[in-house]
Automatic annotation (TrEMBL):
Pfam family, any one: Epimerase_2
Family annotation (InterPro entries): UDP_GlcNAc_Epimerase_2_dom (IPR003331), WecB-like (IPR029767)
Annotated EC: 5.1.3.14
Top-tier EC class: isomerase
Domain UDP-N-acetylglucosamine 2-epimerase: 26-353
Keyword Isomerase among UniProt keywords: yes
Name the record gives this protein: UDP-N-acetylglucosamine 2-epimerase (Non-hydrolyzing)
Length: 360
């Protein structure tokens, strides 16, 4: 079987790292990188440290509005699909790359297989929600990470195409999270120079436009971080670095370490060793859950309801008092609660692809 896999953003690279290694034992995979994440630390470094096969196609498409990016990607991916004539397309998650690839394949009558199907926030102001809903409804095989994903697809009459496989992000965390120790990490500071990881620290990731697009929201997040009892390590997304540096200077921040983006192995190590985590990332809140770390997610909607059990993850608004109050809530960790699978999602994904091929 010939499979074209399309990725474009760092969470997709992590999932592809575990799935591609299993897939290529049995089948031919053509890997396409759209270029949606193009910075070295956001893209190339992930391919290197996770030993992801070099992309067969690198489309170099990033920037512009959602429509511009999606349209350019569709045209480029269509050319790849026409040239390669795959038996199916494999896509991950909910990015513009995901939707563009799914639309291009569906219009060419190529079966679309969607990993992380059924995830819902029920907030259509969130562009990723539109991407994931549209991708699910044009996919031939829906591969759910959680039981709640299966339930959502049943509600939308998609259950007959859905298979519960678990979360390949959990596979990756099990395999890679202990590759580094804190002493192995050297942070590249936005102010210049390098720094080691503090002995005790909090880990902040914050990149979404709703939290970083205005001074007022990011100021509130910084106010909360400044009041914590240990330094806060904040690797800053490239598009937010100018604002973060300016606000840090204006607010005379002393507790927040602004750094360049880090690779997956470094990030997973920091998740394991942080006191607590503050994020607006769908991926990082799951990794905090995998590591048993208290997490506060700065979003107005639940992305992964499974992580919310026992106060292990709480939503907060970009408001200093709210963030601090949620961080103070005690979490309850039940070791036998494993809603994201058993760490073998990659094998189950490939098995589902094989079964689909046999039944066509």
């Amino acid at each position: 079987m010939k499979v074209v896999t399309v990725v474009g953003a760092r969470p997709q690279f992590i999932k592809a790292a575990v799935v591609s290694h299993v897939l290529r034992r049995k089948h031919q995979e053509i890997l396409v990188h759209t270029g949606q994440h193009f910075d070295y630390n956001m893209s190339e470094k992930f391919f290197e440290e996770l030993d992801i096969p070099k992309p067969d196609y690198n489309l170099g498409i990033s920037g512009g509005t959602h429509a511009e990016m999606t349209g350019r990607m569709m045209m480029a991916i269509e050319k790849v699909l026409l040239a390669e004539k795959p038996d199916c397309l494999l896509v991950y998650g909910d990015t513009n790359s995901t939707l563009a690839a799914a639309l291009a394949a569906a219009k060419l009558h190529i079966p679309v297989c969607h990993v992380e199907a059924g995830a819902r926030t029920h907030s259509c102001t969130n562009p990723e929600e539109l991407n994931r809903i549209c991708t699910d409804h044009i996919s031939s095989l829906l591969l759910a990470s959680t039981a709640s994903g299966m339930e959502e697809m049943e509600k939308e009459n998609l259950g007959e195409r859905a298979v519960l496989v678990g979360d390949p992000m959990y596979d990756a965390f099990v395999i890679y999270s202990r590759k580094y120790k804190p002493g192995d990490i050297s942070l590249r500071l936005l102010s210049g120079g390098e720094s080691s990881i503090p002995d005790a620290f909090y880990y902040l990731t914050c990149h979404r436009e709703e939290n970083t697009g205005r001074d007022a929201d990011l100021q509130e997040i910084f106010k909360a971080m400044e009041q914590l009892d240990a330094p806060v390590v904040y690797p800053v997304h490239p598009r937010n670095q100018e604002r973060a540096k300016r606000l840090a200077a204006e607010m005379q921040l002393k507790n927040i370490v602004l750094a360049e983006p880090v690779g997956y192995l470094e990030s997973a190590c920091m998740v394991l060793n942080a006191k607590k985590i503050v994020t607006d990332s769908g991926g990082l809140q799951r990794e905090a859950f995998f590591a048993g770390k208290k997490c506060v997610t700065i979003l107005p909607f639940v992305v992964w309801p499974e992580t919310m059990a026992g106060n292990r993850n709480n939503l907060a608004s970009p408001d200093a008092e709210d963030i601090l109050a949620k961080l103070a809530l005690e979490q309850v960790v039940e070791s036998d609660y494993l809603p994201f699978g058993d760490g073998h999602a990659a094998e189950k994904i490939v098995d589902a692809l094989d079964e689909m091929a046999e039944n066509r």
